[in-house]
Amino acid sequence: MKLKKTIFMLFKIISDITSTKEPYKIAYDVQSENLREYYFLFEENPRKLNKLITDFDKYGIPVNNAYIDVAKPKTHYYPITIGQYGLAVFHTYLKTKSAQKRNHFLRIADWFYANRIEDSKLGTFWLTDIPKPEYNIRVPWKSAFAQSRAISVLLRAWQITGDKKYLQTASSSLIPYTFDYNNGGVSAFTKHGKFYEEYVATEPTMVLDGHIFSMLGLYDYFRAVPKNIELSYNKLAKNLFDEGVISLINWLPEYDLGYWLRFNMCRMSHYPDIDPCTIGYFRLVCLQLKLLLKITGKQEIKNFLEKIKNYDNAKNIIRMYPVKYKALKQLNRL
Asked: Is 108:82 a contact under the CB 8 Å cutoff?
């Protein structure tokens, strides 16, 4: 198992080092009510989207392998990946107008509808049934990132079909953002505001790129859903998005290592004090911040981007990797 982990991580490092400066192109239209391309132009290529995609079921829903540190690995449905792949299929549909691609996309939207969990207090959510050992997650878990992906898929399905079940599910999917992780929600109520959790655990994990992705479904919602249809939910989505932006701006300096960025702010007792981003994640966060600057025009985001864009050089990468290696060893991922 140790050799397998080492080989896996070696190939991951090679892939990381050779990653492109900007992993995706940013969509041109990020403002109109008509939801066309997602904010990043995902392509319908499983190897580019997520290397853990191992197969597809009979409906064309992607199935993931478990990560390398899962003791009893199994294939599973991973809502974050399913949403990303669904958006890539939607992009193909927009380009080709293919009925086959439209139907494939709607089958993915229907997967979210069929696999939703509804709670009278907590709203609608999805669970991921695979452990995340690094965060001590051993039971099916919620994710603000999964909520966001689902909302983005469901709203596009609503717009191209007019079927209100998709809109109603997307609306109810906003509610878990309003609850702290201790109370069944997908947010961490922190000293700097609401932080949207990619991995809901017993303590905040605070993965930086996950928080940003978790906001994009919220932005989709108040862009796409007119106030005269869902006034209260439109306001809720706008407020949640704005709170997420404020929290992000407040937290960004604490992710800054002076030469690189932290991957998260997890403070669990077993977790490394510093777990830096890989090169790929660093570049992804820079791209996310570039998108948010385009959306919000926030000067604080512009200033932070100007500072960190010069971190991506050979000297800093060489400085970062020993710290990352130490963190991976502490987490038993090597």
From this structure: yes
Which pTM was predicted? Answer: 0.94
Where would I find the beta strands (DSSP E) of the chain?
53-56, 62-64, 117-119, 123-125, 187-190, 193-196
Q: Give the residue among 130, 4, 5 at the shortest CA–CA distance from 75.
A: 130
Mean per-residue pLDDT pooled into runs of 10, the chain (334 residues): 57 67 93 96 88 92 84 88 98 98 98 98 97 95 98 98 98 98 98 98 98 98 92 96 98 98 98 96 97 98 97 95 94 83
**Do residues 33 and 224 touch, judged by C-beta distance below 8 A?**
yes
Neighbours of 57 (CB within 10 A): 12
Question: How far apart are the C-alpha atoms of 107 and 130, rounded to whole Å?
Answer: 23
Residue 112 belongs to a domain with what CATH number?
A: 1.50.10
Whole-angstrom distance, CA of residue 290 vs CA of residue 123: 32
**69 and 331 in contact (C-beta within 8 Å)?**
yes
The 10 Å Cβ neighbour count of residue 264 is 23
The residues, ordered by sequence, that sit 6+ positions from 209 with a Cβ below 8 Å of its Cβ are 198, 281, 284, 285, 288
Cα→Cα distances 49→59, 88, 215, Å = 19, 9, 19
**Beta strand residue intervals within 215-307, DSSP E:** none
| Nearest Cα to Cα of residue 195 among 182, 212, 183 | 212
Within 8 A by CB and 6+ apart from 193, the residues are 243, 244, 246, 247, 250
- Report pLDDT for 72: 75
Give how many domains the chain has, as a whole number: 1
pLDDT of residue 6: 60
Residue type, 223: R
Task: Check if the beta carbon of residue 132 is closer than 8 Å to that of residue 141.
Answer: yes
Q: Which domain holds residue 134?
A: 2-330
Element holding 57 (H helix, E strand): none
